[in-house]
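Entry 14. Structure prediction run on the chain below.
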Amino acid sequence: MPFCSSCGTQISDGSLCPACASRVPAPVASSPAVAGGMTDNMAAALAYFTFIPAIIFLVLEPYNRNRVIRFHAWQSLLFSAAWFVLWWVIRIMLHVPIFGFMTLFLIPLIWLAGFVIWIILVLKAYQGQMFKLPVIGDVAEKQANAM
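Output returned:
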């Protein structure tokens, strides 16, 4: 489904946007949306490859005007920050006698869950979908709409 070019709300083809009431034309298949020489979905997917592309997309001019790219860049930064904090908590818990032993067995499962979430985020961004993580997605959406 396409998104409104004014506010970013998900809408059906060629209809009025329910949020801002602007008419959105049906997408043309031969000319994909391009921001700065890169399609929007490619830039959104690249935002999830470490925090560096996400920061670049938030700073560089043609990308930081696109709400979808800003959303994925913010969600990538917040997911990376949450992942960093989680690993520091796990490292601290490894030194606690009882929790350390239990945490040792959970580390591979936590790593696998994070990797699967990351793959889903990259694939959904490449497909042009705004897949929101439960808490992080709402904060990323507020930040993307702030500009």
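The mean pLDDT is 82.
Filed with the rest of this week's runs.
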